[in-house]
Amino acid sequence: MTLAPDTESQRGDAGRPVPPGSWLGWISTTDHKRIGLLTVGTSLVLLLVDGVFALLMRAQLAQPEETFLASHLYNQLFTMHGSGMIYTVMTPFAIGMGVYLVPLQIGAPAIALPRLTLLGYWLYVLGALTMLAGFATPTGAHADGWFSYPPMADSVHSPGTGPDLWIVGVCLAVTGSILMGWAVLWTVLRRRTRGMTMLRLPVFCWSMIATCLMVIGSFPALLAAMVLLGVGRADPDVFASNVWNIGYQHIFWFYGHPVVYVMFFPYLAAVAEVLAVFSGRRFFGYRGTALSLLVFAALSMSVWGHHMFATGQAANDYYSLTSIALLIPAGVEYFGMLGTILGGRLRLRTPMLFALAFIPQFLIGGLTGIMVGTPVIDYHVTDSYFVVAHLHYVLFAGSAFGLFAAVHYWFPKVTGTLLDERMGRLHFWLLVIGTNLTFLPMFALGYLGMPRRVVTYATFDGFGLLNLLASIGAAFLAAGMTVFVVNVLWTLRRRHLGRAQPAGDDPWEGHTLEWATTSPPPRLNFPADRPLPPVTSFAPLLDRRAGGGTA
After folding, report:
1. Is the pLDDT score of 504 beyond 80?
2. How many CB atoms lie within 10 A of CB 528?
3. Do 146 and 88 meet the contact criterion of CB atoms below 8 Å apart?
4. For 533, which DSSP code?
5. pLDDT of 406-426, one tens digit each?
6. Cross-strand bridge partners of residue 11
7. Cα atoms found within 13 Å of the Cα of residue 460, Cβ hemisphere only
8. What are phi and psi of 17, to 5 degrees?
9. Separation between Cα atoms, residue 156 and residue 169, nearest integer Å
10. Is 502 helix (H, G, I), strand (E, B) or coil?
């Protein structure tokens, strides 16, 4: 196999090479590290945008009978917040981590299908911008929820251009995720270095295999659902039959539940990597965890109907059984994390703090997921704020904490510089307080009967105090995110000015191959003067330190 020279291999209109540091070099790059950084950077920017939407909604709900937001604008923010977080933030960030890290962790010089990966990124960006463009239309953005059930989402009940732009944007963003997922999966299957057998892959690579299999298997269902919704908007009579309304829900949730694990597995694996490194131990139960990820991915394709218990159009016993069965692989993964830290010599740096907080917080989301997967409980809490609390404990208290553990852990690999530890700890504690103060009261609100999609509520409902607590918690979250942004920008500014202290190539004493190359890595990942160490397990650098081996 012949490798390309160490250049961007891109040329401008005049035939001259494009400088790799120029803006054109970035937007047309085929370097997987740059594409990965573009993806996660775009996701973080959109996280801030969607977070502002959430703050506006919490301001509206802080007090009963509030008129801060008009009803239609609130519904637009509700929809774009949920859609953005799932379609354009958590999912692309997870895949973007795979684009950056998988080739490095398997010892590959580059990603497979680099141009397809770049195309996937730009489709994702175009989709996100198209969804947000709905705010510029006369009737505003889409306002029928991230699931957009017909007939309420057809052109009769939701007229205007905003919903049409939303459908197109979702299709573009999801298609981009599918293309990037294909490239990551093909890379890990075909471009492993010598000695890197499947059972020597890092835990993160196994998570990306399971993630990409779900992306390829379930995401096309969302495209089919969007096509059906688009046809229904062109001809509203399509949804006059309840067969198509319920059929849409079946197709949508065939995507809608696996995507939860797409937004979970990479962050779980990032936490696993951090726990092992900062405990100074090999990850406990490696083979069981790898198998559980594959079993979890397979089971995720069989539980979609538990979102439809209240419709009376799903086989409740079957979907409840498959939902509860998820406890088994989830338990294996949790025991793996706990077994790793028990008896270890813990270093409580910022990545480790986020990783440790991930364990109990995501556990709340997982256990309440089993609750709503039980029909008798689901009948009471369906479409209530209990479901909102459950979803946010999964995607924010869980996955977002894994996201920030990953950012703090791999930031020195990407930049050669550590984030500020004091600001990192402040960010962590603000998020812990804000997360639990915001979302714990929502379980009680849902149990007491507050609907999940309500613009305001009466004083006599008794929801005022709990909503006020949730809104105060949201202010803590906003403060924590502000600290995070300041930390990143301040560190990058100091690096640009040459004032930042270099972190070294491996500041954490990592276990996997990405730490065997320079920080940041060169164009082809592993230069000739730094050959890879022998791969004898899923933690080759730990093996080298323990045995004193040489490359």
Report:
1. yes
2. 6
3. no
4. P
5. 999 999 999 999 999 999 999
6. 17
7. 0
8. -60, 140
9. 21
10. strand
Which tokens go with 151? 């007939």
Q: Is the pLDDT of residue 10 over 80?
A: no
Looking at residue 90, what DSSP letter applies?
Answer: I
Residue 51 vs residues 54, 84, 424, 480: alpha-carbon distances, Å? 5, 10, 19, 12
Nearest of 117, 62, 68 to residue 95 by alpha carbon: 117
Helix runs in 106-143, H state only = 114-132
Specify the amino acid at residue 108.
A
- What does the H/E/C string look like for 148-188? CCCCCCCCCCCCCCHHHHHHHHHHHHHHHHHHHHHHHHHHH
> What's the rounded Cα separation, in Å, for the pair 421 and 424?
5
E strands, 13-123, in order = none
**Which tokens hold the place of 493?**
């500014």
pLDDT for the residue numbered 22: 78
Other Cβ atoms within 10 Å of 194 Cβ, number: 8
Closest CA to 476 of 436, 532, 417: 436
Which H or E run contains 550? none
This prediction's pTM: 0.94
Per-residue tokens: 149: 């059930």
With a cut of 50, say whether residue 69 has pLDDT above it.
Answer: yes
Secondary structure (DSSP) of 359-417: HHHHHHHHHHHHHHTSHHHHHHHTTBHHHHHHHHHHIIIIIIHHHHHHHHHHHHHHHSB
The dihedrals phi and psi of 386, each to the nearest 5 degrees, come to -60, -40
Q: Which residues are paired to 17 by β-bridges? A: 11
Structure tokens at 246: 């319920």
Cα angle 309, 256, 365; round to 5? 75
CA dist., res. 65 & res. 30, Å (int): 53
Burial 334-356 (b: 16+ CB within 10 A, else e): bebbebbbeeeeeeebbbbbbbb
**Rounded to 10 degrees, what is the CA torsion of 412, 413, 414, 416?**
50
Position 453: which residue type?
R
CA distances to 184, 307, 388, 446, 454 from 465, in Å? 47, 29, 18, 14, 16
Q: What whole-number distance in Å separates Cα of residue 490 and Cα of residue 351? A: 18
CA atoms within 13 A on the CB side of 434: 21
Give me Rg for the CA atoms of the chain: 23
Q: How many residues does the chain have?
A: 551
Question: Is the peptide bond between 151 and the residue preceding it cis, with omega within 30 degrees of 0?
Answer: yes
Question: Which of 15-24, 67-76, 323-332, 452-461 bottoms out in mean pLDDT, i.e. has the lowest?
Answer: 15-24
What is d(CA 521, CA 33) in angstroms, rounded to the nearest whole number?
8
